[in-house]
Design goal:
The protein has three helices and 28 strands. The chain is mainly β. The strands form seven sheets. It has a seven-stranded antiparallel β-sheet, with no helix packed on it. Strands 7-10-11-18-13-16 form a six-stranded antiparallel β-sheet, with no helix packed on it. The protein has a six-stranded antiparallel β-sheet with strand order 8-9-12-17-14-15. A hairpin with a 6-residue loop joins β3 (57-61) and β4 (68-72). The N and C termini lie far apart (77 Å). The mean pLDDT is 91.
Length: 461
Amino acid sequence: MAKDKLTDYDSTTPSNNTDIGGISVAEGMLPSAVNNSIRELTKQLGAFADGTDGIDVLSLADDDASHAIKLQAPASVTATTTFTLPDGDGASGQAMITDGAGTLSWAAPYGNRNLIINGAMQVAQRGDQSSLTSGYTGVDRFLFTRTGAAAVTGKQAGASDSPQSNGFGASLEIDITTADSSLDAGDFALVRQIIEGQNLQGLKYGTSSAENVALSFWVKSPKTGTHIVELYHYDGNVFNSQAYTVNSANTWEHKTLSFVGYQTTATANDNTQGMLVQWWLSAGSDYSGGTLASNTWHTTNANRAVGQVNVTDSTSNNFYLTGVQLEVGDTATPFEHRSYGDELRRCQRYYYAHADGRRGMSEGIGIGTYYSASAIYVGIHPPVTMRATPSLETTNATNHYFAFRDSAADHFDTFSISGGKTPDYFELEGTGNVAGTAGQGCFLRLGGTSSSARIMFDAEL
């Protein structure tokens, strides 16, 4: 049989290789056959280099060729693909991933890699937050802040305002309700998340091994053109800003950026502020009047948001964000979808809605005791250890709370947090029209009179 490709040849007994493509190379052949056989052999070498003529296996043998590792193409390949290997080895524990276009790189294995909490905007314990000038939006862990005239409603948008076909059924909506169309020099508007310092130790900031991070997100802006996203390192008091371009207004677009690590100052390993991730919505000349220091850690305010469009210049404008992921490495990986329950517990470390009249005007609060005829005490354990001892957020008003006791029931008006409080346990004192008997036990719930009645605990950064 003619040897038409390199794999047809005997690799151990040369005398068995008596032809090249059917051309005899046995002893005594004519000189013209030598030329022809060399041409045939070079053709086959070219075919091997091209991966044609049935060469679908790459064999990597050990030193004595007794065993080999083989890489084999599928029996049927639908499209030609070129894989580009990374330059060098990755860090211990990293895995090789693809960017979807054939470029391979080293990255941390999937799972628990997203440093952002609630990046899919699934958890919204506070509900819509209107007339917001500085504070947390309706979506947990994301806040809005500004100087200047702008005010917004920050709320959770549903599937109709989210890139559902890309796996996201919720988004953060920033609805401009008071415009700031003429920015003063010091005006700005930002959406941000603050990350706890002890969650950032894997970044190795303050060392020569400081890790790069990749930030990815889905955005829908009413403005085309330059937008700025920024990291702020609290302990180093330095910024790192980068521009991304919105190509089509009011259209969901996916953005990815990589930020270099910071080698000078470490991040404190505690429960305080470690890093800000923030999206600029507007920037006066104090923040945009210089030269953008792209992907560089610096301290010059004027270089932070150069070119930023003004998203806050009209009450017709809405800005949307979802699918936010911050992870170690230069390459953004597919979004890490966590269960709602998992994401809720992460959010409750910072904010816990214990009883909320919007969910039910008669939601339970707990089992309490009449300390005196005019005061009720109840102890509450949150579902997770909170970041710090929380403050109480409540709406005290006439008949907002109810106590059942010994065949009787009392409406009362006020709850406050008492002296017994830690991140794991806190005591509430009910007063205001309490009328009972000291020593009696009682069951406490919201008063059933208002959806605004609530008991929340706040330990935000």
